[in-house]
Amino acid sequence: MEIRKILLIHPPFPKNLEHGTISRFGRNLYPPLGLCYVAATLEKEGYKVKIIDSFAENNSLNKIVQQCVSYQPDIIGITSFTGNFNLSVDLGSRLRKVGFLVVFGGVHPSLKPYESLQRKAADYVVVGEGEPTVVELLDALSKNRDLSTVKGIAYLDGNKIKINQPRKLLENLNILPFPALHLVDLTIYKPSSVTYKNKPVFSVITSRGCPYDCSFCLSKKIWGGICRKWSVQHIIYQIDMLVKKYSAKEIAFVDDNFAVDHKWVEEFCKMLIAKKMTITWSCFTRVDNVNERILRIMKQAGCYRVLFGIESLEQTDLDFLNKMTTLKQIENAMRLTKKVGLETTTHYILGLPNENPQKVKKLVKKISAFRSEFVKFNLMTPYPGTKLYDKIISGKFGKIEDNMDFYDTLFPAFIPNGYTSKKDLMITRDQAYRQYYLRIGYVIQMLGSLRCFDDAKRLFRIARQLFASNTKHKLLAANITS
Ligand code: B12
Ligand code: SF4
Fold first, then answer.
1. How many domains does the chain have?
2. Nearest atom within ligand 1 for CA of residue 284
3. Which ligand number lies closest to the CA of residue 170?
4. Per residue in 252-266, pLDDT tens?
């Protein structure tokens, strides 16, 4: 069978299809980097590749199937998270029924290859790092070669499910081509106003993996608990390309943990400064991975905001989550970022085992003292494959939602004993947002941060979005009746 024409699909989330809430506060929209890396590698190998981002476009399954039928690819690749796995299974099954070959990849199929095949949603699953495996798989299919030697795949052999040996992670990420952004329509990505200062903003990843092992996170499971970095030169070159080709003004570094390697960060910042690259940027990192020195260097090099996964201010919760951080480290990081003059976005997890609405009120009061510019409340989600899932599956701490459509941290996938219902949890989160953002102290802080007309415009944009999102959250809560 000859394979030349490949279609890659980023499917929507079922809850977004239901509620149409794709770009509300908290849901960020960037091109699907994983698929763009896979696409770039396939193009380099001479394949004709197209990407359909129905997550960003929030397209129905019918529409996606129609798009596939009119494009007539030789094979279709579908990436899937846990929250849209059921939907991806429906999509894959429908596409297989009309005669397409389907290959699954991404987080959830990598953790559950057997399930993907058993549910007849895919012919093949690429497990883990996709680039080298998909190239070898397509080559083997084109040449009718035996698939049993292709490392990192699972596949249907007649009615039998075969799971091959895993593939080793790439030693050198620099060999990968830049993500194929030319294959997506960049005009459909509208990141939340809260998440950028200057537009256009592009997401860039400078590493794969994180050496920590928080119980709710899949990073270690996916990337093996080691952090592989692209070289500083490679990333600088990539940013330069984004500036020249797409007029990028800002970069959102979406690494698991950007500042884990201070030597790398310092070299990178020095190079940005030496090359007089005037882009603004933000990054995710841990509270225990920053100190005053590194924060100052980052600021000098254009960083204006750091996003921290704080998760909780109770040591027992932090220990339960295996976060390996302390309250002292949290306070220190908050103090230092303020001292250096960087904005922060702090992420917290609501719906923890021993929590209740009263505790959330107290938490919000405490976190207000940090004067973080933005806060995000994610709902605790026991992703299959995590240690958290193993800890709470017994039902001792509360009720787990079986339907994976809820598994995206915006909807309740776990209701702790301290809450009466999903609605109770959703409303508590809505109230937490209002308690944080509708404080006089917050308004004064934000007005006090205005330095120029552009700052005022940005604040207005953000305020509009925050109010709109609160209304939407309420509507969503109302839609959830139990
Ligand atoms: C950056 C990031 C984001 C960014 C996305 C930026 C971007 N431009 O893509 C933002 C902030 C927007 C985001 C949003 C969300 N994210 Co996120 N995100 C991440 C993070 C930190 C890195 C993802 C990444 O880019 N990895 C690098 C790429 C190269 O890896 P990859 O996508 O897995 O793809 C590789 C392979 O999986 C494979 N592959 C993937 N798809 C396919 C398809 C085919 C056909 C093939 C052959 C191979 C293949 O090949 C790729 C290259 O090697 C991961 C954690 C992690 N370490 O992976 C969480 C993570 C993926 N996110 C997660 C979640 C939950 C979400 C949200 C649902 C959160 C929310 N409530 O909004 C949304 C969903 C958005 C969406 N559908 O795109 C979870 C997923 C958990 C799960 N089991 O579903 C993760 C694992 C974090 C966690 N909690 O552990 N995210
Ligand atoms: S530090 Fe962040 S990326 Fe690393 S394991 Fe913990 S949550 Fe995951």
1. 2
2. 21
3. 1
4. 999 999 999 999 999
